[in-house]
Amino acid sequence: MSADPQRFAVQGPALRDLLLHGLPYIFAVRPGPFSRGVATGASALPLSQTFGTEPAYVWPDAEGDTWGTAIDPLYAGVPDAARRDDRLHEVLALVDALRLGRPRERAVASKLLNDYLPIYPVHDAE
Predict the structure, then answer these.
(1) Residue 118 CA to chain centroid, in angstroms?
(2) By the 8 A CB rule, do 45 and 88 touch?
(3) Which of 65, 70, 95, 106 has the smallest number of Cβ neighbours within 10 A?
(4) How open is the CA angle 43-31-112, to the nearest 5 degrees?
(5) Rounded distance, CA 64 to CA 43, Å?
(6) Whole-angstrom Cα distance, residue 112 to residue 92?
(7) How, if at all, do strands 66-70 and 57-60 pair?
């Protein structure tokens, strides 16, 4: 049986469930040492407007401008891509807020993801 590219489609509810409930398990966060990097999670925009930047979480990166607790990005090229594209940086930071698992930050991140992913609304992060 071969794959039919015409039938591939993102299932909105499944994507929502994966983001909200699967990320902390599939891409678990293991905080590392204090290091220089690119801010992520609640330490980066847009969440830093609500929660502030301290204590900071960062993707380790020699060209980063923030010091904080290192966490592994979803992919090695994330810090570089985030520096080149502010909107992508914001979306990936929101995803990391879901990965980090703090209830209040997860709730706000899930609501903000609706602005970035309007086709696939994300709800109920609690």
Answers:
(1) 16
(2) no
(3) 65
(4) 35
(5) 13
(6) 12
(7) parallel
